[in-house]
Design goal:
By secondary structure, this protein is of the alpha/beta class. The chain is built from 14 helices and ten strands.
Length: 331
Amino acid sequence: MVAIAPPARRHTVSVLTFDGMAPFELGSVVEVFGLPRPELDVPWYDLRVCSPERGPIRAVGGFTLTIEHGLAEFAAADTVIIVAVPDVRDEPPPDIVAALRHAHARGARVVSICSGAFALAAAGLLDGREATTHWRYADLLRRRYPKVRVNPDVLYVDGDDVLTGAGSAAGLDMCLHLVRKDHGARIANAVARRLVVPPHREGGQAQFVEAAVTRPDGGDDAVARSMAWALAHLAEPITVARLAREAHLAPRTYIRHFRRQTGTSPLRWVITQRIMAALPLLEEGRTPIEEIGAAVGFESPVTFRHHFVRAMKTSPSAYRRTFRATAAAVQ
């Protein structure tokens, strides 16, 4: 008789709701972690939507949700996500603060999106740490919790066991970042394609970018054209002058348009794209690391390692080992 291996344990994710909340960030969490994805052939997440009080809660927009799980289930998950607080000017409810402290103490990964950072700060989980929140709330978070090193200029901050994200659409970036940490770039990119969003926005990218949708001089279209060219030629030398030539703009004009549209510099964006292109190569094959660096456009292994460590907070070789260990654990 052939023994049948038990199914792999699924990583549990909990997200907290409350009466009167806006549904956008909650919807982002549900969309990423709640939908079954059998086509990806990996053990997907077990999502639990929780509330301090079971039963119907009102959401902004005039509809109600029936919540089946309470704070005990919220604190018991492997990854605990809080996407908002009822009022950023009031202390978060003590039972929510206690649940967050309990989850962190037992080793859960604790995550906030938008104003949820106020609950993490109230629980003391951000003391001495860098953290972010929606740019509108950054000054208030800094004033109310001076032990937190608030960075209002990023999409998310990964502190390993505690992560904080900015608001609204940055919640999707945070969720995809968590998928990338758990399952690698290939799986995260597949989920992003299903969501019809870019597969990766760097955590350090600016939250708030003053940019018109279109410009009469065509600058934004020109920047998009140059970015498409760069993605098709990552292995080649790429300079600002070359990108500007693809955009048919003077270099200084090009830099100004690029920063206005993306919130970052052209070369920093190129480096990020090269790092992202390297991830699936590190995950899926045995190609020597120095060859991977060259394949995505870094001029030397030293340069590749320097930029990889700066972006990913680990070395290429350590990333490969960690990803393989994680992949083996979920088989």
